[in-house]
Design brief:
With about 325 residues, the chain is mainly alpha-helical. It contains 14 helices and 3 strands. Mean pLDDT is about 85; it is low at about 95-100 and about 105-110.
Length: about 325
C-alpha cells in the first residue's frame, strides 16, 4: 500500500475513499494526530488517486463526490461476489482449503465427480496399449485387393479409430474426409484416444487429469464433454487442413493421433476464461502458462519432430473461442 496524502478529518477521508471506490480504486484511511492519512492498495492506481485527491481538496462539496447509494451497492456486490467465489471453489476443491489453482497444481480435489475425466484416461490407455501404440502392426499397401485380410486385429482397431481409414484415403485419391463422408463421424473424436508411445500417453493423461478434473467439477460432466468434443474437433480440423506450403512442422495430415488438441483446448479455456469472467474460480499459474506456450513453440522446431502442431494450435484456438462464448457465469 502507498500513502498519497492527508485530509483534515475522518468525514472528509471517508467521503474521498468512497468516491475512489466508484472509480475502481481500493483505498483506506487511518486517523492520525494531525489528520487522516489516505492509503492506496494498488501501486498502479497511485498516480490517478493523487490527481483525484488534488481535485477533492479544491472542492470537496462537488456533486460528483455524493456517492452514498452507489458505493453502498458496489460494496454489497463485492460481498455477494466473494460468497459466490467461495461457493464455486467448493465445487471442485472437495474438502481441501479453497484456492484458485488447478487440481494438479495446488487446487486439490477428489476423484469423485469426474467420471468423464477418468473415462478419457481409461479409454486412452486401453486404446493406446490395445493397438500397441501403432507400432509394428505390419502395415500393408492399402492399394492391394486383399489389404483388409492382411491386417492384424491391432491394426484394424487402429484404422477404425483414426481420423481417416488408410484404405478409404487411397481409394478416394487422398481425400482426408473420405471416412467422414461415409458417415463414420466418431472419427472426429476417437483419434484423441490413440497415442504413439508411453511418454506421449503419460504426458497427455497428466494434463487431462489436471485440467479436466477441475473443469468437470466446476461445470458438470455434460458441459465438460461439450468442451472436450468442441476443442478436439477444432484441433483435428486445423491439423487436417493446414496447407502443404506451410513449414514442415505445420503441414496438415489426417493421420495425427493423441489428446494434445483437447489438452490445449482445456488449457486455452482456463487461461482465457478469467479475462471474460472476473470471478472465475480457476486460473492457470503463470509458470504453467509459460510452460504450455513454450512447449507449443518448441514443438514447431526441428528439435521436437513429428508433432501434430496443427492440433495444438487448433485446440488452443477452440479453447479461447469457448472461453469467450461460454454462456453465463458460474453460479
Amino acid at each position: 500500500m502507498r500513502r498519497i496524502g492527508t485530509l483534515d478529518d475522518s468525514v472528509q477521508a471517508q467521503k474521498f475513499c468512497d468516491y475512489l471506490v466508484t472509480k475502481e480504486i481500493d483505498a483506506t484511511w487511518d486517523d492520525q494526530n494531525e489528520g487522516c492519512d489516505i492509503w492506496i492498495r494498488e501501486e498502479s492506481a497511485v498516480e490517478t488517486a493523487r490527481q483525484e485527491l488534488a481535485e477533492f481538496r479544491q472542492d470537496s462539496s462537488a456533486a460528483k463526490y455524493q456517492v452514498g447509494d452507489k458505493v453502498r451497492k458496489i460494496r454489497e456486490q463485492r460481498v455477494a461476489d466473494n460468497a459466490r467465489r467461495q461457493k464455486n471453489m467448493k465445487k471442485f476443491s472437495g474438502s481441501r482449503t479453497p484456492g484458485r489453482g488447478l487440481a494438479g497444481f495446488g487446487g486439490g480435489g477428489r476423484q469423485s465427480g469426474i467420471p468423464l475425466t477418468i473415462g478419457i484416461i481409461v479409454l486412452s490407455i486401453l486404446a493406446s496399449v490395445g493397438t500397441n501404440f501403432g507400432r509394428n502392426l505390419g502395415w500393408q499397401d492399402p492399394a492391394l485387393p486383399d489389404f483388409r485380410e492382411r491386417l492384424s486385429g491391432e491394426a484394424k482397431a487402429y484404422l477404425a479409430m483414426s481420423f481417416v481409414d488408410r484404405y478409404h484415403y487411397v481409394e478416394s485419391d487422398g481425400d482426408s474426409l473420405a471416412s467422414i463422408k461415409k458417415g463414420q463421424l466418431w472419427r472426429l473424436v476417437t483419434p484423441m484416444f490413440l497415442h504413439g508411445g508411453t511418454m506421449h500417453l503419460l504426458f497427455n493423461m497428466l494434463w487431462i487429469y489436471s485440467l479436466g478434473s477441475s473443469l468437470e467439477r466446476l461445470h458438470g460432466t455434460l458441459a465438460f464433454a461439450g468442451l472436450v468434443v468442441f476443442t478436439e474437433i477444432i484441433g483435428m480440423a486445423v491439423q487436417v487442413f493446414l496447407p502443404d506450403w506451410m513449414p514442415a512442422g505445420l503441414r496438415g495430415s489426417p493421420f495425427a493421433i493423441g489428446a494434445s488438441g483437447a489438452v490445449y483446448g482445456l488449457f486455452g479455456f482456463i487461461w482465457m476464461r478469467p479475462r471474460f469472467e472476473a470471478l472465475y474460480p480457476i486460473v492457470i499459474p503463470q509458470q504453467t502458462a509459460l510452460l504450455m506456450l513454450g512447449w507449443l513453440v518448441l514443438c514447431m522446431t526441428p528439435i521436437i519432430p513429428n508433432v501434430a502442431n496443427g492440433a495444438h494450435l487448433g485446440g488452443l484456438l477452440g479453447g479461447v473461442i469457448a472461453a469467450y462464448a461460454w454462456p453465463g457465469r458460474v453460479s
